[in-house]
Specification:
The complex is a heterodimer of chains A (136) and B (187). Chain A has 136 residues and is an alpha+beta fold. Chain A contains three helices and 13 strands. Chain A has a domain of 88 residues. With 187 residues, chain B is mostly helical. Chain B folds into two domains: 98 residues, no CATH class; 68 residues. In chain B, 49% of the residues lie in helices and 10% in strands. Chain B contains nine helices and four strands, in the order βαβαββααααααα. In chain B, the strands form two sheets. Chain B has a two-stranded parallel ribbon. Classes of the chains: A alpha+beta (136), B mainly alpha (187). At the A-B interface, β9, β10, α3 and β13 of A face β1, α1, β2, α2 and β3 of B. β13 of chain A pairs parallel with β1 of chain B, so a sheet runs across the interface.
Chain lengths: 136, 187
């Protein structure tokens, strides 16, 4: 048994893991702490939504979940490095399709140079010209 | 109002922001959160968001100087006139379908590339530079059009983002028939 840092869109949680060659398995009981989805008899659940896990081959084994299978189940991109003991799960792939459907600008919270946090939604009520730039 | 977001480490953006001394919020996005949420692949990218929080004009290329505009083959005067029209309410509002047509669809590969960037960024922060570079490189290979990954990681990799690696990257990209900037039509 080793440990893995699971980055949920950048937010790190350390979970117990076992690595079989390049297959990473994580403690199913820790999925909720890392990703907000709780394993229940009816499936992997968050709020009113449950995704069935029974019958999905290669997903569960001895109270562990296969990391790639989990990312696939949640529809999220996964980059992982078993040798570095870290994995990154990006936002659900369907999130952007939802943005196209609703045209609602995705909210975000980012710091300014002083570390003060700003969300896009706090400026609702004004037209916003959002400008992404860089020094490079 | 204007909100600027630097796709940078704070220390790389600091001198630019301090010199401009702006009154609007100037945010720092070292993790490329906007790339993930808005499917952005390069800078500068602008998005118009209305009072209700809805996208009126999706990702577009806009420069503030004529010189910059020439890189993207856009007229900054025409873009500015359009922007003024929107701010003053004199532009006819586009239909939802017109807005959607301007959105570049998201590909699984590009979002996977961003996951590799996110992993690489964490490794870089941890001082594991070799492993970080490996994942930046996978990201660039998965999404060769993602210059936020390919060029944006140059400062992290100790490469000059205006130097030979950048020139070679752009020359190859343009030489194989691609476009570096894809502005929306001014209409």
């Amino acid at each position: 048994m080793t440990s893995l840092v699971l980055l949920d869109v950048g937010k790190p949680t350390e979970v117990e893991a076992t690595i079989d060659v390049s297959d990473v398995w994580i403690n199913a009981a820790e999925v909720e702490a890392a990703l907000g989805w709780e394993l229940k008899p009816e499936g992997l659940c968050r709020a009113a939504i449950c995704i069935p896990v029974e019958g999905r081959s290669g997903l569960m084994s001895d109270g562990r979940m296969n990391l790639e299978g989990l990312a696939d189940l949640l529809g999220r991109p996964l980059a992982h490095s078993p040798e570095e003991g870290v994995a990154y799960m990006g936002p659900p792939l369907d999130l952007f399709n939802q943005t196209i459907r609703t045209l609602e600008a995705p909210d975000f919270v980012l710091p300014d140079l002083e570390g003060e946090l700003h969300s896009l939604s706090q400026y609702r009520g004004s037209k916003v010209l959002l400008v992404a730039w860089a020094s490079w | 109002m204007v909100i600027t977001v630097a796709t940078d480490r704070a220390d790389d953006a600091r001198s630019w922001i301090e010199r401009a001394n702006p009154t609007h919020p100037t945010l720092i996005d070292e993790h490329h959160r906007l790339g993930e949420l808005y499917n952005m692949v390069n800078v500068p990218t602008v998005v118009w968001i209305d009072e209700t929080g809805r996208i009126t004009r999706p990702n577009d290329v806009a420069f503030t100087t004529e010189k910059g505009g020439r890189y993207a083959n856009v007229s900054t005067d025409e873009q500015m006139a359009l922007l003024r029209g929107w701010v003053r309410g004199s532009l006819p509002p586009p239909s939802d379908d017109d807005i959607r047509k301007k959105v570049t669809p998201l590909s699984e590969k590009s979002q996977l590339a961003r996951a590799h960037f996110g992993l690489g960024w964490w490794l870089h922060r941890e001082g594991r530079f070799g492993a970080a570079e490996h994942h930046f490189s996978i990201g660039g290979e998965l999404a060769p059009d993602d210059f936020m990954i390919r060029r944006g990681t140059m400062p992290l990799r100790g490469s000059d983002p205006f130097g030979p690696e950048f020139v070679e990257m752009v020359t190859d990209w343009l030489g194989s028939g691609h476009t570096y900037y894809l502005p929306l039509p001014v209409e």
